[in-house]
Amino acid sequence: MNKLTVENVSVSFDQNKIIEDISIQLNKGEIVSLLGVSGAGKTTLFNVISGLLYPESGRIFLDDEDITGQAGRVSYMLQKDLLLPFKTVVDNIALPLIIKGEKKKKAREIASSHFKDFGLEGTQQKYPHQLSGGMRQRAALLRTYLFSNEIALLDEPFSALDTITKSGMHRWYLDVMERIKLSTL
User: Fold this and answer.
1) How does pLDDT run across 36-56, given as a tens digit for each residue?
2) Fold that domain 2-71 belongs to in CATH
3) Which class in CATH covers the domain with range 77-160?
4) Hey, which of 87, 109, 111, 155 would disulfide with 94, CB 3.0 to 4.6 Å?
5) Of residues 34, 67, 75, 33, the one with CA closest to residue 51
């Protein structure tokens, strides 16, 4: 079953075609990878899918519902973890739940219930600067998952990590994704 459908999307900036007639289907629990040189339009496509940028043509569907131009329907994780340095790890991770209207105490409980699965057990009261790069990325991935537990757009989420950590994070992500049935582009 298609979770996400990108249908004939095109985007231009200043009369320059960045992406043209792109179509992608992402099924439940599937990983689809976009490969291309720097500047090929991968991030532009993610901005369209996430609703941050409106395409000049084409549509985006989530479970057959047209979500073109609607922000907040899919999770989007950028290259940097973007954890807030003045908030504890649990408060960073609970943030999307609080934004959605959950009470802070309940949001912390929900976030904390996932710490073990994401390899973050015992870090709840630490601050981002006290975590390794890999742990920070796990925290950012958990926050991304709590924003929308159906679709995750990951824009080179492990690129800032060293080769050994990156390889471990790839294996870990595949394992976690299998357990939580997250569809990933």
Assistant:
1) 888 888 999 999 998 999 999
2) Rossmann fold (3.40.50)
3) alpha beta
4) 111
5) 67
